[in-house]
Amino acid sequence: MPRIAVIPGDGIGVEVVREARRVLAALEDANELGFELVDWDLGAERYLRDGVAITDEEFRALADDHDAVFLGALGDPRVPGMEHIKEILLGLRFKLDLYVNFRPCVLPLARLSPLVTIQEPFRIDMFRENTEGLYTGLGGSFKTGTSDEIVIEKDLHTRKGVERIIRAAFEYAQSQGRGRVTLVDKANVQRFVGSLWRRVFEEVGGAYPGISQDAMYVDAMVMDLVRRPECYEVLVTSNLFGDIISDLAAEVTGGLGLAPSANIHPGRYALFEPVHGSAPDIAGQGVANPIGAIRCVSLMLEYFGHQQLGERIEAGVLASIEDGTTTPDLGGESSTEEVGSWIASYVGSEST
Ligand code: ATP
Predict the structure, then answer these.
(1) Rg of the chain taking only CA atoms, in angstroms
(2) Fewer CB within 10 Å, N or C, the chain?
(3) Is the confidence at residue 210, as pLDDT, over 60?
(4) How far is the CA of 116 from the centre of ligand 1 (A)?
(5) What's the average model confidence in pLDDT over 196-221?
């Protein structure tokens, strides 16, 4: 029976997680899945109250006593340096070695995106390396604050790190019947990093002869993601480029409010979170789109082997949009709770 730590977190995280739980509960009622949800009070409020984001003991309990984390969002203007995010989210990613950041960008209805011209729905699956690159915090500054200041930020890539994320992308493509994997880099400038990624991409890709494989510079890719995103299937890239282009890919496929993500160490642990942040500008108003979080339930179900139920949630999401039950970001007038309830009653209406 999977044990899930639920961290609603800050801002709209609390509101969207409530709806994600409603949808999971509806499926639980109809299917007896046996997920055990354990509430965790972590976030800015706790950090401001106690001066600590997460203790070592809590961290151990999260890692050892749970199979996965379900996170809403972290971020609060009262914590300007975002220390609690670094400790909780980056701590989990690094300490649990969640090296795959999987971000499926699915456009369920072409008309949802003013950026695309085609009429057909499409999806781009993004594999972002999640434990290396510029995110290790290695570096420093010298003569800080003077006119002679020097700063160095280390961009760290290991062969092991590059290989395992590329393999994860190819494995996924193969298992899902996707025909193309594209490496995104900046090999013309990052000579050493680019060379490592390209060599490993070619080597690993050699074991998947049925999948078409190519590499693109990140600047050309961002242009193409706007011009003809439907040409791409699976993208694999480094931590920094993945961070940037996945927001663009989310926007091209209907907006931040729709996008889910999973941080995974395959076979060991997973953390699910919507791509959007805490959105302080709309928090507490009941207008946040809960679909990104609801789709995280879909990813979580698929991760634990309930493929069909994950697809059922996707069908519920599409049906709610077609019905016009949408939050203002998609042009509708429904509240966060109305969208969540609509999808919950759709998925709960018949057991699968
Ligand atoms: P954080 O610092 O936590 O990342 P942010 O506001 O800087 O928060 P996001 O939360 O990622 O960044 O979102 C950027 C903007 O997109 C928000 O200010 C909000 O207006 C909009 N937005 C994000 N998520 C949603 C959502 N689920 N529903 C509706 N609008 C959203």
Answers:
(1) 20
(2) N
(3) yes
(4) 22
(5) 98
